[in-house]
Design goal:
single chain; 631 residues; alpha+beta; Heat Shock Protein 90; Ribosomal Protein S5, domain 2; Rossmann fold; 4 domains; 21 strands; 39% helix; 18% strand; binds adenosine-5'-diphosphate; binds magnesium ion; chaperone; Hsp90_N; Ribosomal_Su5_D2-typ_SF; ATP-dependent protein folding chaperone; unfolded protein binding
């Protein structure tokens, strides 16, 4: 062809988003665009071949190669796809407004079934200029009698076209890297980038380091050909048939686990997984894994990788995937997603909403089927999956509605119960009240009391449980959660205190004086349990107000606004308490009675919450004093 020069035609409509992306997005997307184009070029040729519109050699094998070369500071992207004629270069490269991908899909849309054309995510071919001083295309079209074309541009606004010496079908893009982008010449860095985007590309992808190879050949010649072993055939760096494309019926547990480890570099086995595989009404494939938490208080940290025709798009795109699902780990391939549009568009796209609610439904279905058919495993998984389920319920009403009957609670009587079962079991003792334990160690004394009285509480000790309980209270009319130390149930008390009214008021005055805290209420009860002298109760309401003010008070001290409503319950069936009553008129024992009452209070406090440092030192000093009295 005759040499030709010209200006690349750009209209302002598409230059603005381009400049913006140019400035803000990650540099490595140029490689995503160029290899995607190479993949598109091959898929187009495959399609043409399948329609009998291309003549290919018998030993035709498709592949894409990326070659980094530190010596001449270039990156080459090679493909043996359909190539371009000079007319096509003029149309698709020189005029940014045209997308060959869109044209191709338009042209063959009736004839092609599953074209797997990627198209561009944003910048397309011109992203090459994000990292290059100069870009060169050498391309030879598959068409009979086509002539190879060379296209060169220094900066992306002017180009030169001429004949190319390329002799084999396909395209080579050569990037002459700018000084500030030389990091991509590093083989390791390039491998990482390619693996990130193309670990599952359907066409074999190879990476070569030209500089390193030149070095190796030099060494070999120096060794004078001693090493005669053939080098092993290079391996593609991608898996062209990822597991999510396989029919779930044909996948084994081993395959799912292996895939999980490989993709997420997590060597803990996942608990279970969901294989999404649908073609209609939209195309959605993928695998979602429920990870195992490493320790009890770990918050789940998931990762959902989104793919578009087997090319990685991004992690955790919240416009497509319901936020709570991001606590899981998984891969999703949605080739129907409109990727070329802005995120805010995605958010309001009815189609995207459908995908998102389909995934939500699938997750709920899987959990329900486990609950119904594998209850034992479900119980076992619960400690790992409960933060996820609860968070999902808080974030999404629809999800709550689907899973509300399969939420389970760990019971102090052992095993797990649903809310319905709990209320049913305990309706005679405390209708509609759910007693719960937020800290099994701290509340051990109260749990013991519950057990002795054949009462049941549930363990709700995760970070998310406060929110979760409020949610349930707002959803299930009448139900109220009460922490196990919030109240003494009638079931634990004997009919009457067994002591006179005078003695009751004596105890009240005695403890009021010794403890000297006017906010503390004193109450006398005869518990069925005779071994405990006293317990401290904290009203559920006031505790919640305090917790809220701590969380939202922004460091302001609001404790005076929400005083702690604490009650010291003295147990009149306990011997020690009885002994104090007996000593009421004994002047010589007055000091001892004071010591004992202070001690009773501290002990009750200690099984309720941690003592403050000052109270703790007093407690220790007093303990020593009491021991001294024994010797
Ligand atoms: P898109 O991929 O969305 O069409 P690009 O800017 O990435 O947009 O590419 C523009 C066009 O240039 C492509 O559609 C294609 O027609 C042509 N093209 C780019 N790279 C190649 C290639 N390696 N082989 C053949 N054609 C290519
Ligand atoms: Mg493209």
């Amino acid at each position: 062809m005759a040499q030709e020069k010209g200006n690349i035609s750009i209209n302002t409509e598409n230059i603005f988003p381009i400049i913006k992306k140019w400035l803000y997005s990650e540099k490595d997307i140029f490689i995503r665009e160029l290899v995607s184009n190479a993949s598109d070029a091959i898929n187009k040729l495959k399609k043409l071949d399948a329609m009998g519109e291309a003549e290919l050699p018998d030993d035709n094998k498709y592949e894409i190669k990326v070659i980094v070369n530190k010596n001449d500071k270039t990156i080459k992207v090679l493909d043996n796809g359909l190539g371009m004629t000079d007319e096509e270069v003029k149309k698709y490269i020189n005029q940014i407004a045209f997308s060959g991908a869109v044209d191709f899909i338009e042209k063959y849309k009736d004839k092609s079934d599953d074209a797997q054309i990627i198209g561009h995510f944003g910048l397309g071919f011109y992203s090459a200029f994000m990292v290059s001083e100069r870009v060169q295309i050498d391309t030879l079209s598959y068409q009979n009698g086509a002539k190879a074309v060379k296209w060169v541009s220094d900066g992306g606004t002017e180009f030169e076209m001429s004949d190319s010496d390329k002799t084999d079908r396909g395209t080579v893009i050569t990037l002459y890297l700018a000084e500030d982008s030389l990091e991509f010449l590093d083989e390791y860095k390039m491998r990482q980038t390619l693996e990130k985007y193309f670990a599952f590309l359907p066409i074999e992808l190879y990476l070569e380091d030209a500089a390193k190879e030149a070095e190796n050949t030099e060494e070999k010649t120096e060794e004078k050909g001693e090493d005669k072993t053939e080098p092993a055939a290079p391996k593609p760096l991608n898996d062209t048939k990822p597991l999510w494309l396989k029919n779930p019926k044909d996948c084994t547990d081993e395959e799912y686990k292996k895939f999980y480890t490989k993709v997420f570099h997590d060597f803990n086995e996942p608990l279970f997984w969901i294989h999404l595989n649908m073609d209609y009404p939209f195309n959605l494939k993928g695998i979602l894994y429920f990870p195992k938490l490493k320790h009890e208080f770990e918050t789940m940290e998931g990762q959902i990788k989104l793919y578009y025709n087997q090319v990685f798009v991004a992690d955790n795109i919240k416009e497509v995937i319901p936020e709570f699902l991001m606590l899981l780990k998984g891969v999703l391939d949605c080739p129907d997603l409109p990727l070329n549009v802005s995120r805010s568009f995605l958010q309001n796209d009815g189609y995207v909403n459908k995908i998102s609610s389909h995934i939500t439904k699938k997750v709920a279905d899987k959990l329900t089927s486990l609950f119904e058919n594998e209850r034992e495993s479900y119980d076992k998984y619960w400690s790992d999956i409960n933060p996820f389920v609860k968070y999902g319920c808080i974030r999404e009403d629809k999800f709550y509605d689907r899973v509300k009957d399969i939420i389970i609670y760990k019971s102090t009587k052992g095993g797990y119960v649903t809310l319905k079962e709990y209320l049913e079991n305990n309706k005679e003792k405390h209708e509609n009240t759910v007693f719960y334990v937020s800290d099994e160690n701290q509340q051990a004394q109260y749990i013991k009391l519950f057990n002795e009285n054949d009462m049941e509480a549930v363990i709700l000790s995760s970070m998310i449980d406060n929110h979760f309980m409020s949610l349930i209270e707002s959803k299930v009319t009448g139900v109220k959660f009460n922490r196990i130390d919030a109240d003494i149930s009638a079931n634990m008390k004997q009919e009457n205190t067994g002591i006179s009214e005078q003695d009751v008021s004596y105890l009240e005055t005695l403890f009021k004086e010794t403890i000297n805290d006017d906010k503390l209420k004193i109450q006398v009860e005869a518990l069925k349990n005779e071994s405990i002298p006293a317990v401290v109760l904290l009203s559920e309401h006031s505790r919640r107000m305090q917790e809220m003010s701590k969380m939202y008070g922004g460091g302001m001290d609001m404790s005076s606004m929400f005083p702690k409503e604490q009650t010291l319950v003295l147990n009149s069936s306990n011997k020690l308490v009885k002994a104090i009553i007996d000593l009421k008129n004994n002047e010589s024992k007055k000091e001892d009675v004071k010591l004992i009452s202070e001690h009773i209070f501290d002990l009750a406090m200690m099984s309720h919450q941690q003592l403050e440092p000052e109270a703790m030192s007093k407690f220790i000093a007093r303990s020593n004093e009491i021991l001294m009295k024994l010797v």
